[in-house]
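Customer escalation, tier 2.

The customer says the design service returned an amino acid string that "doesn't look like it belongs to this structure." They asked us to rerun it and document both sides in this ticket. The original structure tokens are below, unchanged.
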């Protein structure tokens, strides 16, 4: 993508309304625009990051055996009245009526709707286990939306729902998602710590929040330092291996970890002083097992091997992609801007032409840009006629992991400079060597 043709509305000044680093940088880097309180347009740069986050989520959900569908944002109130949650959910639910005066709502979550989908088609235990997920917009009318897309009213959610014949099967489904979540966040450059959590309005008696540590986190968290060194499940994880997934779950829940709401001070104090860690944290995922809470009241039953009808055991599993993006920024930035992990970077490389219009610089940049693009590397070519300082500031702000800098003096000797955005290290290479280095992945 050529910067001269890309829509990148950079802000030079820090927005006054931004309270935390990620909100400030997302506005300054032209990633989002606020449309009203807690509602944002995702601009092209932000959309590219969001798409990459969603792609990783999809890959890991699919690997764990979940199957994607797409449910609507608007839901009939009848389903929620059937489950008993329509009146109980509170003012966070946006209740509306259609032109026939039928009560509707903008879905804050999808337990009722997915249960209705399930009961309409699945009648036998032979069709289990089943895990269905989608990535869809949700709306919760937060009393105080803040921190940009970290806590907005309209947000994107990956929500998955598992269905099993027995409690044992449901626990295996829970462990599948537990391992998949650890892998998902790790691939985005995050160390997520699972912490026992309150089930809230979702219901149930087994729940974990996945928390990343960040100085600007919303709440205080307490955990054992061992979590910082635990190995994340690898690519070879067998999601059919009941014992293996249980072992992963047991390892990652074998140490103390709790948010302030669930904190047990005496238990935490019993940990050796050098092994205790108290910090700020950001929730990036939440998983629940709630048994037959919805299947009982909504008639989601299957015929078991005994010929009798059984209410299915269910779980739900949420990740907020529009929340993950600022969380990644909170965990990875410096005073100059964002430092994207390669896997979610909007552009992996930015080619900076220090003197647009100079024939030699233009030719060198075109060569590099063409070679990287042809190799399938997401590359932004800064071909704009601007001062060098402005180009460097933009490159640092938007956070591409690698900068390729081509100036008249270097190009005259057939060389360009490569800068690592995270470390700041610079290296001078020939144009051919630079292309080989970047396309080989070394």
């Amino acid at each position: 993508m050529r910067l001269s043709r890309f829509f990148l509305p950079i802000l030079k000044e820090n927005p006054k309304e931004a309270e935390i680093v990620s909100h400030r940088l997302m506005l300054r880097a032209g990633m989002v625009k606020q449309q009203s309180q807690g509602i944002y347009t995702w601009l092209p740069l932000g959309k590219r990051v969001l798409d990459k986050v969603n792609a990783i989520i999809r890959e890991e959900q699919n690997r764990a055996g979940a199957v994607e569908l797409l449910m609507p944002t608007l839901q009939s109130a009848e389903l929620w009245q059937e489950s008993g949650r329509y009146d109980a959910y509170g003012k966070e639910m946006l209740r509306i009526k259609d032109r026939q005066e039928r009560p509707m709502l903008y879905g804050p979550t999808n337990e009722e709707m997915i249960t209705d989908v399930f009961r309409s088609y699945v009648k036998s235990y032979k069709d289990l286990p089943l895990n269905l997920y989608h990535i869809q917009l949700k709306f919760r009318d937060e009393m105080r939306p803040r921190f940009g897309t970290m806590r907005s009213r309209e947000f994107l959610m990956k929500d998955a729902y598992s269905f099993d014949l027995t409690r044992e099967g449901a626990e295996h489904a829970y462990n599948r998602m537990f391992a998949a979540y650890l892998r998902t966040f790790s691939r985005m450059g995050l160390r997520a710590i699972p912490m026992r959590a309150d089930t809230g309005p979702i219901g149930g008696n087994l729940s974990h929040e996945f928390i990343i540590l960040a100085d600007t986190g919303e709440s205080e968290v307490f955990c054992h330092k061992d979590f910082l060194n635990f190995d994340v499940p690898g690519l070879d994880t067998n999601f059919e291996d009941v014992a293996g997934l249980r072992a992963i779950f047991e390892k990652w829940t074998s140490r103390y970890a709790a948010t302030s709401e669930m904190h047990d001070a005496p238990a935490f104090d019993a940990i050796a002083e050098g092994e205790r860690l108290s910090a700020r944290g950001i929730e990036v995922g939440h998983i629940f097992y709630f048994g037959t809470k919805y299947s009982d009241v909504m008639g989601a039953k299957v015929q078991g091997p005994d010929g009798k009808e059984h209410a299915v055991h269910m779980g739900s599993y949420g990740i907020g992609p529009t929340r993950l993006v600022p969380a990644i920024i909170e965990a990875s930035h410096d005073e100059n801007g964002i430092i994207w992990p390669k896997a979610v970077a909007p552009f992996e490389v930015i080619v900076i032409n220090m003197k647009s219009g100079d024939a030699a610089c233009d030719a060198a940049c075109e060569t590099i840009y063409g070679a990287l693009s042809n190799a399938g590397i997401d590359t932004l070519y800064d071909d704009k006629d601007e001062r060098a300082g402005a180009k460097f500031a933009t490159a640092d702000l938007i956070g591409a992991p690698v900068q390729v800098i081509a100036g008249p003096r270097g190009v005259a000797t057939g060389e360009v400079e490569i800068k690592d955005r995270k470390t700041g290290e610079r290296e001078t290479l020939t144009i051919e060597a630079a292309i080989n280095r970047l396309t080989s992945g070394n």
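Tier 2 assessment: The sequence is consistent with the input. The chain has a mean pLDDT of 95. The first helix runs from residue 21 to 28. Sent an explanation to the customer and offered a walkthrough call.
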